[in-house]
Write a structure and sequence with these properties.
Length: about 190
């Protein structure tokens, strides 16, 4: 069972193949006795009830709030932040998704916010499918790859073709309007 010390929102999550959860919260938090910042990533073991650091906010050149995360098979981390940040020599915006290699401390642009029609976006949930397509969500209604969608939708984006399709429709929620802000598709 995941119990936090406060009322923070989990705003980034990825489920590993071993069942552990990589997560970040909207604010500073404590889980299983481990205190962390909103720019840290924690690996939580739901069976053992333990938590360890998977990524430290101090790797950024300043404070940053991680609001989207996916862990790749090679151990690299895809991440998005709420605002502009600098990591591993790369400065990027809140709508960008970067790939970070912790072994080399190098970050590279994986997905550019310039692909959105509005140009300035906050991606706040990301997952990578086995076919290398991204599943993402944003904090506002946007247009990407010819698809206009809402902040409660999940969008599948093909980085090769540039096409976007609706992966999950916000209308499926009973209330009809919900903000999805973390995604992990296995």
């Amino acid at each position: 069972m995941l119990t936090t010390s406060g009322a923070s929102d989990i705003d980034a999550a990825h489920v590993l193949s071993n069942g552990h959860i990589i997560l970040s919260t909207e604010g500073d938090e404590t889980i299983a006795g481990v205190s962390f910042l909103d720019g840290d990533l924690i690996e939580f073991d739901p069976v053992g009830g333990t938590a360890t650091f998977a990524f430290h906010e101090s790797l950024f050149s300043g404070s940053a709030d991680i609001d989207g995360v996916a862990v790749l098979a090679n151990g690299n981390i895809l991440l998005s932040t709420a605002d502009a940040a600098t990591l591993g020599g790369l400065t990027f915006g809140g709508g960008d998704i970067v790939e970070y290699n912790s072994q080399t401390d190098v970050a590279s642009l994986f997905f550019s916010e310039s692909l959105f029609t509005s140009g300035v976006v906050n991606v706040d949930g990301v997952s990578l499918l086995s076919n290398s397509n991204l599943v993402l969500t944003t904090t506002t209604n946007e247009t990407l790859g010819g698809l206009t969608f809402r902040d409660g939708d999940l969008v599948e984006y093909n980085r090769t073709t540039g096409a976007a399709t609706l992966y999950f429709d916000e209308d499926l929620f009973t209330a009809g309007a919900a903000d999805v802000d973390a995604v992990s598709v296995r």
